[in-house]
Write a structure and sequence with these properties.
The relative contact order is 0.17. It is globular, with a radius of gyration of 15 Å. It is 72% helix and 0% strand. It is mostly helical. The chain is built from six helices and no strands. The two termini are 14 Å apart.
């Protein structure tokens, strides 16, 4: 797939998932607790955003004729090494990928208060900004 088309699709998915998280934020800011269904939506939107970012990282490496690693951690490390973002962002990406892994693989041990605080603090927007950024060749 052409990089410009891929980037347009990542931005589209980011907008959809960000809108869902914005709805959850609005509910929480009104002082209402999320229903189990709404919590599930929040827990679904976050890994979708993060997995989308991992895919975009790998597409960027491919477009720059770099080897494509299997893990998300290695993909973002390679992006940092390629100068596509600053190395000081790498710990943030490692934490984000760790969150995705926790939600997907350790779902029975998720602290919803921490996830809710993360969403309320707009931490998801770091991923959304990456997904919407145009990395023209």
């Amino acid at each position: 797939m052409r990089l410009d088309l891929y980037q347009a699709e990542t931005a589209h998915v980011a907008a959809e998932q960000s809108a869902l998280l914005a709805q959850a934020k609005a509910i929480l800011k009104q002082g209402r607790t999320l229903t189990p269904l709404e919590q599930g939506g929040m827990l679904h939107a976050l890994p979708i955003l993060i997995e989308n970012a991992i895919g975009k990282a790998k597409q960027l490496l491919k477009a720059h004729k770099q080897p494509i690693p299997l893990s998300g951690y290695d993909a973002f490390k390679a992006l940092a090494n390629s100068g596509l973002f600053t190395p000081d962002e790498l710990p943030v990406w490692n934490a984000i990928i760790g969150l995705r892994n926790r939600i997907v693989h350790d779902y029975m041990d998720i602290d919803m208060e921490q996830v809710t605080a993360l969403v309320l603090a707009d931490k998801d927007q770091f991923v959304v900004h990456f997904l919407c950024k145009d990395f023209a060749q």
